[in-house]
Write a structure and sequence with these properties.
Blueprint (H helix, E strand, L loop, with lengths): L2 H4 L3 E7 L6 E6 L6 E6 L1 E9 L2 E9 L8 H13 L4 E10 L4 E9 L2 E11 L9 E15 L5 E18 L1
Antiparallel strand pairs: 1-4, 1-10, 2-3, 2-10, 4-5, 5-6, 6-7, 7-8, 8-9, 9-10
């Protein structure tokens, strides 16, 4: 028996954005001082599965971030540029446990570098025949300064991540 027959097969997909389905980043602070709900498109991404091992790379275009309000768009972009951030680049690994995968990895953008754990699951189908995935997670940024009038510094900024993205076999 050849070694090639005993190696597990790796399946891979390209991650792309569904029209209008940006990655949403939401924050709701317990103090009630700031509620941020922004979205940004996916620039690129890849997902690999080999047996139960999962790896994912995802690049989110922070320079195209939107709030839904043109007045706050500038403030949020100023906040992002203050960290010299253009793209949020995430690289993580984990494993599948049935219908979902838990993926842990580093996300970096400019001077931001943080650990993020994401739950990734196929939408409406299984891992082999999926055409969409759902990504859910939470990230803690600690103390940050937000350039919005009346907001200033926020202690313990926690942001929820939510996305539904298309995948195509690579």
């Amino acid at each position: 028996m050849s070694i090639w027959h005993s190696c597990p097969v790796e399946r891979s997909w390209n991650i792309r954005q569904i029209d209008g389905a940006d990655v949403r980043l939401r924050s709701s602070q317990s103090t009630g001082r700031v509620d941020v709900d922004v979205s940004a498109p996916v620039r690129a991404g890849d997902l690999w599965i080999q047996e139960t091992d999962v790896r994912m790379n995802l690049t989110i275009a922070l320079d195209r971030i939107k709030t839904g309000n043109f007045l706050t768009d500038g403030a949020v972009r100023a906040f992002i540029s203050g960290y010299r951030a253009h793209d949020l680049v995430y690289a993580g690994a984990g494993n599948t446990s049935g219908e979902a995968a838990e993926i842990s990895g580093r996300a970096s953008a400019g001077t931001i570098d943080t650990q993020i754990v994401l739950a990734v699951s196929p939408v409406g189908t299984d891992w082999q025949s999926m055409s969409e995935i759902e990504i859910i997670g939470t990230v803690e940024f600690g103390r940050v300064h937000i350039p919005l009038p009346g907001v200033g510094t926020v202690d313990d900024l926690v942001v929820d991540i939510d996305a539904r993205l298309a995948v195509m076999p690579a």
